[in-house]
Design brief:
Length: 366
């Protein structure tokens, strides 16, 4: 059988890019001769991360629409038309057997061009509330791989496959790593550890809540590993001065070690973060990003909190309430154990492999 040719499109954030790379890696493991091309948005994170993972990527000049009034929005129709033309050319030149969309700006033009050219398409919808682009593309997709139950309200039921979200396998393997993590982060093994992750760019309101709570956590003998992001780094370092229980990091490359040592996690509720936390079975406080499209982070968090599998703290309350909430939970083994028991069934371990199998199956149906 001839080797499969696959285009994977999308990106914009780590939450889209890392699952896309996980799918590509799985296809390559199953079919080493597979030819895989990524299509992303010019100037976005994928243009750097995808080549680092060993794959070729082509950028489209696509941009998002600003939700508040902006003159930048005047450029949108022109960039969209240009992107559609380029996407059509990419499909014609690469001749893919299957096109996969993982969300992000580039997914729309690429999957639309693929569909028009008769190329089978797969959508990977990561959130519990489908975005507008995916809802439109889903009507013509061959398969829609979802991470949450009840997605029939957005997509044709006969196309849906419940796969979970692909995660970086090295990040969720924690066995035997706690001692190494204590050493890596220079922590005290006798203290409880709080992990703060606001996404790859940090989260200003969460960081402000952390800074306001440092005195209380010192008093309660809680140590923390704090990923604060680039924009908050100097403020976080200043706030942490003279506190040996606070370890500040702009970005954490070893998330496996961070998860391994955490007794409690405070996180945004992006799809990738939620999926990882389900798999590592850590009690978590989700602080959804209020400006996320279609309020999808809040809906992701509610998919867990409605099952008592996590805790929810609105962004508007994080500055005032985070300190007290963390201290209370750290002193309540019973509450933490309850959410861990409820989160266990919600993790999907083989998502990338299941999606890769669906991609390969579509090629064999040609």
């Amino acid at each position: 059988m001839a080797s499969i040719r696959v285009i994977i499109s999308g990106g914009g954030t780590g939450g889209h890019i890392f699952p896309a790379i996980a799918i590509a890696n799985s296809i390559k493991r199953k079919q080493p001769e597979a030819e895989i091309l990524f299509v992303g948005a010019e100037g976005r994170m994928e243009m750097e991360k995808v080549p680092q993972a060993g794959y070729e990527i082509i950028g489209l000049p696509i941009m998002g629409i600003q939700r508040s009034f902006s003159f930048k929005n005047l450029k949108f129709p022109f960039k969209l038309l240009k992107s559609m033309r380029k996407a059509k050319r990419v499909i014609k030149d690469f001749k893919p057997d299957v096109a996969v969309g993982v969300g992000g700006y580039a997914s729309g033009p690429l999957l639309r061009a693929a569909s028009k050219a008769g190329v089978p398409t797969i959508i990977q919808e990561q959130n519990s509330y489908a975005g507008l682009t995916n809802k439109i593309l889903g009507k013509k997709a061959s398969k829609v791989c979802v991470a949450y139950e009840g997605m029939e309200k957005f997509f044709p039921a006969d196309k849906i496959i419940l796969t979970g979200n692909p995660v970086r396998s090295e990040v969720v393997k924690l066995e035997g790593k706690k001692e190494r993590a204590i050493e890596f982060f220079q922590l005290d093994p006798s203290k409880k550890t709080l992990l703060i992750v606001g996404g790859s760019l940090g989260a200003w309101s969460v960081n402000e809540g952390v800074a306001a709570a440092l005195d209380q956590w010192k008093e309660d003998d809680i140590q923390l590993v704090w990923q604060c992001g680039k924009t908050y780094l100097s403020k976080a370092e200043e706030a942490a001065k003279g506190r040996d229980n606070v370890k500040v990091h702009e970005f954490i490359n070893r998330m496996d070690l961070a998860y391994a040592v955490a007794d409690l996690v405070v996180s945004r509720a992006g799809a990738l973060a939620v999926s990882e936390l389900c798999l590592v079975k850590k009690p978590s406080i989700f602080v959804p990003l209020p400006s996320a499209a279609e309020d999808h982070q809040n809906k992701n968090a509610q998919a867990l909190t409605s099952r008592n599998a996590a805790f929810l703290l609105p962004d508007s309350e994080v500055r005032e309430k985070l300190g007290e909430m963390v201290s209370r939970l750290m002193n309540s083994e019973e509450e933490l154990e309850k959410v861990v028991a409820n989160i266990k069934p919600l993790g999907y371990e083989d998502a990338a492999d299941i999606i890769a199998d669906e991609v390969i199956k579509l090629k064999s149906q040609d």
